[in-house]
Design a protein that fits this description.
This protein has seven helices and no strands. By secondary structure, the protein is mostly helical. Helix 5 (about 105-130) packs antiparallel against helix 6 and helix 5 packs across helix 7 (about 165-185). The longest helix is centred in the middle third of the chain and has 29 residues, at about 105-130.
């Protein structure tokens, strides 16, 4: 059973060039993304407390993302990089959520699949970052993150399969992969995870 689909198209050379040319800004954005990922996992519990089968994994994912937040914060502190002056909305995630169904059940599946897509793109981008870093400690850190994000991409599809038919999940996931590519292609390239 395949638990996620690959992204439609790899991130561009222009994106990794932007990240490498302003790595401090990338770290600030990365910090914020980890905070939001932890909050997202916990928000599923708040919105869907009846979905008991997935609560343990959501808690585990939320804690893991918060640990990543702490690790990025420590990395920034070592490099004397300040916290971002504001933690605003992520245009990538905002654009994905705008394309969600509105019904409770349909939206639940969409939000799980969006989480999978976001984590899968994150894994792909962290792998690119790791491959372009020269600092061996940073390279090791981003390699660890890429494997963790890939795991999370699988987890959210597995959660959806608890509640929805396999064919329905994979058909909708395929649609989301196409939507995600459209959104990525439309966004301004910047030193940010998305």
């Amino acid at each position: 059973m395949k638990l996620n689909l690959d992204i439609a198209k790899p991130s561009s050379q222009a994106w990794i060039d932007a990240v490498m040319s302003d790595f401090d800004s990338f770290l600030q954005d990365h910090l914020d993304c980890e905070r939001k990922a932890s909050s997202m996992a916990m928000s599923f519990i708040a919105k869907y407390p009846d979905r008991k089968e997935i609560i343990p994994e959501l808690i585990e994912t939320g804690i893991e993302e918060l640990e990543h937040f702490q690790q990025v914060y420590n990395l920034m502190a070592e490099r004397n990089i300040p916290l971002p002056s504001s933690m605003g909305e992520d245009p990538y995630v905002k654009a994905l959520i705008k394309r969600c169904h509105s019904g409770r059940e349909e939206r639940f599946m969409d939000r799980l699949l969006i989480a999978s897509i976001v984590e899968t793109r994150g894994a792909e981008r962290f792998k690119m970052v790791a491959e372009h870093l020269e600092d061996s400690n940073l390279k090791k850190f981003y390699k660890m993150l890429w494997t963790s994000e890939a795991k999370h991409g699988h987890i959210f599809v597995k959660m959806a399969l608890n509640y929805f038919e396999k064919d329905e999940v994979y058909k909708r996931l395929e649609w989301w992969v196409e939507q995600e590519q459209e959104i990525i292609d439309s966004l301004e390239i910047r030193a940010a995870l998305h």
